[in-house]
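User:
Can I borrow your eye for a moment on a structure tokenisation matter? Would you put together a sequence-and-structure record for a protein of your own picking? Please set it down just below, with no commentary around it:
AI:
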Amino acid sequence: MLSAKSLFQEILDNDDSFALFCSIAAGGESQGGWENARIAALVPPDERDLAPKIARHGADEDKHGRIFNALMKRRGLEPVPVPPETDYTMLLERKGIGLAHDRLRADRPLTVRDIVTYLAHSRVTEQRASEQMELLRRHFADHPDLGRAVRMISHDEDSHLAYCHEELLRFAYAGHGRAIQRTLRECALAEIRVHRDVSLAVMAHMGRILGWSTAKSAVLAAGIHARYAWERFAGWRRMVSLRMPEHRDALGGPATAAPEFA
């Protein structure tokens, strides 16, 4: 029977599919680390108090990239090239979601509107990351190889999501509510399309590596399309709501160190 746990277990048990999974994850996390570091360096003067939290966000993402690389190294594996069609962060940028890399490479301060755009983009993508890591934590929190990594990354993603909620509400109370809701909706609708396309591409690559039958691949593709249909109809709304988190000031401190996997 197909299930999220059995599917991921199959990917985990094969060196080639595991290397691809970790390489895709590490690449996305490292890219997020760079983006947040640049945003922290370019925060407008009136929002300098936000810079340490953005830097902490970036440091966490860098840490996650190192964790995925360490998991490969522990099995004697090397990172593999990430197929462009599976590069979630690059495809989001191409859709105009978030701050363009050309803007982040320029040495001029961001505006408050830029920071609102960054936080709205992060709120949407961190929702996805939090849900995905919660799924892995549910099934693999006690796994001898993945357990510590899954628990740590899941905790961090939950903190990132809480931080986005709190900061966006602060900006909403300061008069940016309409811009925030408009940007959240645009980001959410674009993200669910990119997530569908990336999911289909990743499953196609995993199917070739693992020798899945045409029938199995078709069932998985149908599931991805069904998930997208639900998200397009109503599920995207969970990505645009804002509520004050129970865990306040979730990024108000230094990043925790990555665990050793050697």
Q: What stands out?
A: The chain has a mean pLDDT of 95. The helical segments are 4-13, 15-41, 51-74, 88-94, 101-105, 112-140, 147-210, 214-233. Residues 196 and 224 are 6 Å apart (CA to CA).
